[in-house]
Amino acid sequence: MIGIFTQFLQLFSAARDPAAPSWFDRVKAFFGGSIARGGASSAPQKSGIVEAVTNILTAGQQKDIDVLARTLWGEARGEGVRGMHAVANVIMRRHSLRKYGQGWPSFGPVAGSVAQIAQAPWQFSAWNPDDPNREKLLTVSESDPDFKKAKQIAAAAVRGELPDITAGADHYHTAAVKPNWSKGQTPVAVIGNHKFFRLVNFAGV
Predict the structure, then answer these.
(1) Interior angle at CA 196, CA 191 and CA 199, nearest 5
(2) What are phi and psi of 50, to 5 degrees?
(3) Per residue in 178-194, pLDDT tens?
(4) Residue 175: phi, psi to the nearest 5?
(5) 112: Cβ–Cβ under 8 A, 6 or more apart, which residues?
(6) Residue 155 half-sphere exposure toward CB, CA atoms < 13 A
(7) Do residues 68 and 56 make contact, with C-beta atoms less than 8 angstroms apart?
(8) Are 154 and 173 within 8 A, CB to CB?
(9) What confidence category does residue 55 fall into, taking pLDDT thresholds of 50, 70 and 90?
(10) CA 181, CA 178: separation in Å to the nearest integer?
């Protein structure tokens, strides 16, 4: 890591050469690819520093991403990228609520991790002990294209980069069922075969 930042600092101490790329172009090239003399850039490639920054994740974040991705895959792989995105929004909304002690205790522990919220008992059925999806989601790998997409969505969610497309929903169900908690409630979004509801109103998140 020290070597990488030494290289980075050298970009700013390079001798001025009118024919050479500007320091901005050199920095851009260092982060994303190589450039030819005169400032023409080549196709972006991963550099050492990009890989290093990508790998700066705590063990907790890595677990959150893995568990969240498995949840999305188990709950909504048949709904495509947008459907998995929406389920991620619900889980992250619950995570934010519990951070402030809001929401229902069944959402998971106060200030619980994303993984704890996703695996809260009897909340997301793919994790239920008797659900046929459970064994599948425990063993799926990135060789499965849907799981690879789920992992990308989960990573964006954990990093706080996933926009909400559910209008702040904290519950959802498939169109094929009507659980007791949804009676008298109006969906705030309908995405694919899932109906989304916002049952907890809290201005803090």
Answers:
(1) 165
(2) -65, -45
(3) 999 999 999 999 999 99
(4) -65, -15
(5) 95, 98, 120
(6) 11
(7) no
(8) no
(9) low
(10) 8
**pLDDT, tens only, 136-194:** 999 999 999 999 999 999 999 999 999 999 999 999 999 999 999 999 999 999 999 99
Q: What is the pLDDT of residues 58-72, one digit of tens each?
A: 889 999 999 999 999
Predicted confidence at residue 203, as pLDDT, reads: 74
- In the sheet where 189-191 sits, what is the strand order? 171-174, 194-197, 189-191
Tokens of 81: 């990228």
The rounded Cα 140 to chain-centroid distance in angstroms is 18
By three-state DSSP, how is residue 100 classified? Answer: coil
Question: What residues contact residue 205 under an 8 Å CB cut-off, 6+ apart?
Answer: 93, 96, 97, 99, 100, 102
What's the predicted TM-score (pTM) here? Answer: 0.73
202, burial (CB in 10 Å: exposed 0-12, middle 13-18, buried 19+): middle
Residue 28 tokens, joined: 């851009």
Pairing of strands 171-174, 189-191: unpaired
> How far is the C-alpha of 69 from the C-alpha of 65, rounded, in Å?
6
Residue ranges covered by each domain of the chain: 2-54, 59-197
